Amino acid sequence: MSEEAETEEPETGTEPEEGEGAESGSGVPHIFGRQLKRFRVRSGMDRAQLGVRTGYSASTIASYEQGRRIPSGQFITLVDQVLGADGVLAELIEEMERAQYPAFFQDAAALEKKAVEWHVYDTLVINGLLQTEDYARAVFASWRPVLDHETIEQRVAARLVRQQIFARKPVPTISFVMEESVLRRRLGGLSVWRGQLEQILLVGQRRNVEMQVMPNNREEHAALSGPFTLIETAKGRRIAYVPAYKASRLFTDRPTVRELEDQYGLLRAQALTPRESLAFVEQLLGET
Fold first, then answer.
1. Which end of the chain, N or C, is more open, meaning fewer C-beta atoms within 10 Å of its C-beta?
2. pLDDT digit string (tens) for 221-242?
3. How far is residue 45's CA from residue 17's CA, in Å, rounded to a whole number?
4. Is 150 within 8 Å of 141 (Cβ atoms)?
């Protein structure tokens, strides 16, 4: 999502100082924000002037400085040059990218960017790599405790950035197995749901992607313990990511990873074939 398309906060014409309305904190976004403000003030620019130089609104600059929003790597690179920061701001790009994600997913996100194989089994919602912007927003809006607007938009943007994995070169091998119930769940309403099914059909046409549906009427099921992701790195290392409430984990020990690999192999044999699965999604679309 472009910065210009987002709802902006009204400008007040003043900049809150520490202890006078600005958020204080020790996380990476707050550290970056303080550095950004320091270099901006040193350069003699106010937020509006920096916004003109970078193509962002003054309120967006304020959000970055106060650590309330996480800027893209593109913005950080640009503002580092504009403010003459000599790489001080740019050095934080990798850490800021990690900060876009909830703590439980940060390590998996880093692996995802470099994986040569990525295999996913989903049981509750469409996988983030397949989600449309509207569907992702509906997912985050459903979270409890409730997420504030800025956090939702930040996580939606981060989720969409993850989808660059499909265009990466060399292309990774990617597969998905998802429960039929996931496809039938109309998160966000009929229009959002239909758009999501269309997105699945579109991604499913990619030569490096295989999509499979596990029907509700199967009498055998190899992975009743829940969702997981299998990852292979360029160095041949195999890792499993298992999401769980406040306790998501990466497993690197070979026995655990092998167990999940066995489950995934059986799941793929039990599910509809990729061609049958895409036909099933088309059938769902035709029912509405």
1. C
2. 999 999 999 999 999 999 999 9
3. 16
4. no
d(CA 3, CA 165): 22
Pairing of strands 173-179, 209-214: parallel
Q: H or E stretch including 27?
A: none
Structure tokens that stand for 211 in this block: 């999509």
Query: Which residues are CB-neighbours of 27 under 8 A, at least 6 positions away?
Result: 67, 99
Give me the amino acid identity at 223: A
Helix H segments across the chain? 28-43, 47-54, 58-65, 73-82, 93-99, 106-112, 133-141, 149-162, 180-184, 190-203, 254-270, 274-286
Rounded to two decimals, the pTM is 0.72
Cβ-proximal residues to 112 (8 Å cutoff; 6+ apart), any chain: 118, 162, 165, 231
Find residue 121's DSSP bridge partners. Answer: 177, 228
Q: Using CA atoms of 171, 177, 180, 184 in order, give the dihedral in degrees to the nearest 10.
A: -30
Tell me the two tokens of residue 81: 């040059």
